[in-house]
């Protein structure tokens, strides 16, 4: 009888081991959730800072699972402001599968079109079952994923975003040189109080500030007038316009067709960089745990980049080139890109892209060449880059080519991105 029991025990252990070996989860799996989240954000017209908030908490849920399962991973999330404690109940089987489920659980609870993610999750579980994942592993993984998601969702709720609607409606300043909404949509200001929520890594008493923007002036001998004239006279070569279109990433863009304004399918700048991280991870064949570490570091650092950028945008309230140029230079002028609905200074693309380049360079190296195919599904041609830094430089200058930012706003955004990126890497490199 003892021999039979031992034999059955051996067979059970062998079955578990063979199942674990048979089902391999690569970092490419993470792209499935990221891409589905991106499609949901396009559907919901999620604004750029809010989109990054969604990515951040979803990635945190998955990474929390992985850092509990693999002690070799850098659990940098525990250094975040107000980060909760977890039981650290290590997943017994398929931690990668559990991490995926945790990401989906958070995404479906936070995003407006969450039912779509719920359906996606059901299909994903079914696909894993078909390739051999047992019902027992699925059940225990689901329970663990839901427990972690519950903790992350509570952490998300505590950041204060749900209280922003209690603030008074943003009213554009009446002073000369202040921002107000632009055509064709004349959208109200986006997330004027985003900087009031809890950031992940920033101490508001220790933030290095960027220089103030050049003051508004209608004198044709002023610095501001020269900045405006430079946008007006910017080289509209075919290549420059192609660069502007490639990095547009404006979810509020509208196609003006007679009496109709039709929304165009575009992702946010943060979603674009999350896609780039997926391309780089696949090229380098990064393992699942490290790949999720990269996505989590990128998502959370970019949310802090938006926090910092939006803090200054709604401090300076600076007028956009479209408005200034029409008043000071040419009343018929239109920018190549549609102006996003928030103040100009600093450039959000410059802040976010520079931060992303610093974080991704940390993981992949300074001369990591890749081809960006993120928006190919939306009809945007590929572009190749020799490094993340060169991509960030192009993303930054694209806003000048597109006619929606002054050069000092772009340069200030790059400075702000370098400040945030270096700060975030310092936080990651400190011992837990």
Automatic annotation (TrEMBL):
GO molecular function ontology, one term from the record: peroxidase activity
Ranges for domain Phosphatidic acid phosphatase type 2/haloperoxidase: 297-429
Keyword Transferase appears in the UniProt entry: no
Top-rank taxon: Bacteria
Keywords recorded for this protein, A-Z: Oxidoreductase, Peroxidase
EC number(s) per entry: 1.11.1.-
One Pfam family cited in the UniProt record for this chain: PAP2
Keyword Oxidoreductase: yes
Major enzyme class: oxidoreductase
PANTHER family the UniProt entry points to: PEROXIDASE-RELATED, TRAF-TYPE DOMAIN-CONTAINING PROTEIN
The name this protein goes by in its record: Vanadium-dependent haloperoxidase
Source organism per UniProt: Aquirufa salirivi
């Amino acid at each position: 009888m003892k021999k039979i029991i031992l034999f059955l025990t051996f067979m059970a252990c062998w079955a578990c081991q063979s199942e674990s070996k048979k089902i391999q989860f690569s970092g490419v799996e993470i792209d499935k959730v990221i891409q589905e989240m991106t499609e949901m954000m396009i559907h919901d017209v999620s604004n750029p800072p809010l989109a990054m908030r969604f990515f951040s908490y979803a990635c945190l849920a998955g990474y929390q699972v992985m850092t509990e399962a693999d002690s070799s991973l850098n659990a940098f999330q525990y250094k975040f402001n107000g980060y909760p404690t977890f039981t650290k109940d290590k997943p017994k089987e398929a931690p990668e599968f559990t991490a995926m489920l945790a990401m989906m659980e958070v995404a479906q609870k936070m995003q407006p079109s969450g039912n779509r993610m719920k359906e996606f999750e059901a299909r994903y579980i079914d696909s894993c079952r078909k390739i051999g994942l047992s019902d027992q592993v699925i059940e225990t993984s689901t329970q663990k994923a839901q427990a972690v998601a519950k903790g992350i969702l509570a952490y998300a709720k505590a950041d204060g975003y749900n209280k922003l609607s209690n603030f008074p409606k943003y009213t554009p300043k009446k002073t000369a040189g202040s921002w107000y909404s632009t055509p064709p949509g004349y959208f109200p200001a986006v997330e004027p109080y985003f900087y009031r929520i809890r950031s992940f890594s920033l101490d508001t008493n220790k933030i290095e500030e960027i220089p103030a923007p050049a003051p508004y002036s209608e004198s044709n001998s002023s610095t501001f007038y020269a900045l405006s004239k430079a946008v007006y006279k910017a080289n509209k070569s075919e290549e420059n316009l192609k660069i502007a279109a490639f990095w547009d990433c404006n979810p509020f863009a509208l196609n003006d067709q007679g009496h109709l304004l039709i929304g165009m399918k575009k992702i946010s700048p943060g979603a674009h960089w999350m896609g780039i991280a997926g391309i780089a991870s696949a090229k380098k064949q990064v393992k699942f745990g490290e790949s999720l570490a990269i996505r989590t570091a990128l998502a959370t650092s970019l949310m802090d980049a938006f926090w910092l950028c939006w803090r200054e945008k709604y401090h300076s309230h600076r007028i956009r080139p479209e408005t200034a140029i029409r008043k000071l230079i040419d009343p018929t002028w239109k920018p190549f890109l549609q102006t996003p609905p928030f103040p100009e200074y600093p450039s959000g693309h410059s802040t976010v892209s520079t931060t992303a380049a610093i974080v991704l360079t940390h993981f992949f190296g300074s001369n990591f060449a890749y081809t960006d195919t993120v928006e190919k599904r939306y009809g945007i041609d590929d572009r190749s880059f020799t490094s993340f830094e060169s991509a960030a430089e192009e993303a930054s200058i694209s806003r000048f080519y597109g006619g929606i930012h002054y050069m000092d706003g772009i340069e200030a955004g790059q400075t702000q991105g370098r400040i945030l990126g270096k700060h975030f890497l310092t936080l990651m490199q400190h011992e837990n």
